[in-house]
Specification:
Layout: H1 7-10, E1 23-24, E2 30-31, H2 33-37, E3 41-43, E4 47-54, E5 59-62, E6 68-70, E7 78-87, E8 98-99, E9 106-114, H3 121-125, E10 131-140, H4 148-151, E11 165-170, E12 185-190, E13 201-206, E14 210-212, H5 214-221, E15 224-225, E16 228-229, E17 246-247
The structure holds (1S)-1,5-anhydro-1-sulfamoyl-D-galactitol and zinc ion.
Length: 250
């Protein structure tokens, strides 16, 4: 695939005014009591038989069960369909969103589709208000015990065409920071960060990072993309333009 600077040749939306990711400049954030009065409700439970694949630009875990989010900035109920991540070759870069221009080593994306308005994820994917993505910053520190269930299987999906691997039980809740951290976030209207860059995503970027070990991030960097080792698979930040970044904290 061509580099992000050329995506607009094939996907004109990539040049739009509501693109993601963005740099979150804290001095611009607008605290909204509203978001706390109707707190974001994340109802996740353990999923059996999730499928792990190599998409060519990330790993992806597709989940089938009823994990939903609602309230907070959301006017509809959204169901979790998959998670994947973006990371760097080195620890000082890798996340898609930046905070005051600072990157984290990795950013996990939990992708949800609007089940109030649409029949399925395929329909929601291209439609207004179709998606809500939770972004979880990840820094290098202690070993993440629960994530290891996925890390252990990565060697089976080194290449894009490798067969999907079943993960017998995984609770996506284990990818979230501690309970108070789940209600500390920024939210704004944006897009998919990969083509077709559709502008129908409510972004919820959690403030508090989780930690994984340097051995664990090395296992992600050992995956293969179409052109070599999979790393630096993040899109550079896009202009905020006329958008507000709302927050649940001051
Ligand atoms: O990059 C992902 C893309 O791989 C796909 O998962 C899409 C929606 O399902 O989401 C984008 S992103 O905006 O979540 N990075
Ligand atoms: Zn993503």
């Amino acid at each position: 695939m061509l580099g992000p600077e050329k995506w607009h040749n094939d996907y004109p939306l990539a040049n739009g005014h509501y693109q993601s990711p963005i740099d979150i400049e804290c001095s611009q954030q607008i605290f909204q009591q509203d978001l706390l009065d109707h707190p974001l409700k994340i109802t996740y439970s353990p999923c059996s038989d999730s499928l792990l694949t190599n998409t060519g630009s990330s790993f992806m875990v597709a989940l089938g069960q009823d994990c939903v989010i609602q309230d907070g900035p959301l006017s509809y109920e959204y169901e979790l369909v998959q998670f994947h991540a973006h990371w760097g070759k080195e620890d000082y870069r890798g996340s898609e969103h930046t905070v005051n221009k600072t990157s984290h080593a990795m950013e996990i994306h939990l992708v949800h589709w609007n089940k109030t308005l649409y029949k399925n994820v395929t329909e929601a994917f291209s439609q207004p208000h179709g998606l809500a993505v939770i972004g979880v910053f990840t820094k290098i520190g202690s070993h993440h015990d629960k994530l290891q269930a996925i890390v252990d299987q990565l060697h089976k999906i080194t290449h894009q065409n490798d067969e999907a691997v079943k993960i017998s039980s995984f609770n996506p809740e284990d990818l979230l920071p501690n309970p108070q951290g789940r209600n500390a976030y920024w939210t704004y209207q944006g897009s998919l960060t990969t083509p077709p860059c559709t502008e129908n995503v409510t972004w919820i970027v959690l403030r508090d990072p989780i930690e994984i070990s340097s051995e664990q991030i090395t296992a992600f960097r050992d995956l293969q993309s179409r052109d070599g080792k999979m790393m630096d698979n993040f899109r550079p930040v896009q202009s905020l333009n006329n958008r507000q970044i709302r927050s649940t904290f001051r």
